[in-house]
Design goal:
With 147 residues, the chain is mainly alpha-helical. It has a domain of 102 residues: Arc Repressor Mutant, subunit A (Orthogonal Bundle). Helix content is 69%, strand content 8%. The protein has six helices and three strands; from the N terminus they run ααβααββαα. The longest helix is centred in the N-terminal third of the chain and has 27 residues.
């Protein structure tokens, strides 16, 4: 196998690893009633540390607006989020986590930490740090190509 073959397989390998990782996350979070469509927006809201405009949450989560609306409807029914009118734009809604979401987010963090430990078993910390840097560069290059 040549270096070119390795490069040609890189996209496939990244895609396969991502799909497998997300499938394992879904398995771990199924007992708490969360699918990828639901836990991803919750994690983005948690990372934001406050409310996010609904359209921005859709961008961060990589979910189309109409799809996100259905997900948010379900999360709101479960009492995990609330949508408030935006002071800056009457057409926009700001999505906030509720206090009821905190224990669930703690549970998500524990389950994801356990999975991360299992998946990265035997991988030195410096290799993980290198992987983060390489992936960040790949993402930057992909974003440049999108412009």
């Amino acid at each position: 196998m040549t270096a070119r073959d390795d490069c040609n397989n890189l996209g496939y390998d990244l895609s396969l690893a991502s799909r497998r990782w997300r499938a394992r996350v879904d398995q771990r979070l199924a007992p708490v009633g969360l699918t990828q469509a639901k836990w991803v927006p919750l994690r983005h809201l948690w990372r934001a540390g406050g409310g996010l405009p609904q359209h921005r949450l859709a961008e961060h989560a990589g979910i189309e607006g109409p799809t996100l609306v259905r997900v948010l409807d379900e999360l709101e029914r479960r009492g995990l989020i609330k949508r408030c009118d935006s002071d800056a734009d009457r057409r926009s809604k700001i999505v906030h986590l509720t206090d009821k979401a905190a224990p669930l987010l703690d549970e998500i963090a524990v389950r994801l930490d356990e999975l991360r430990e299992e998946v990265l078993e035997g991988v030195p910390d410096e290799d993980v740090a290198l992987l983060h840097r390489v992936l960040a560069r790949i993402m930057q290059n992909l974003e440049k190509a999108d412009r």
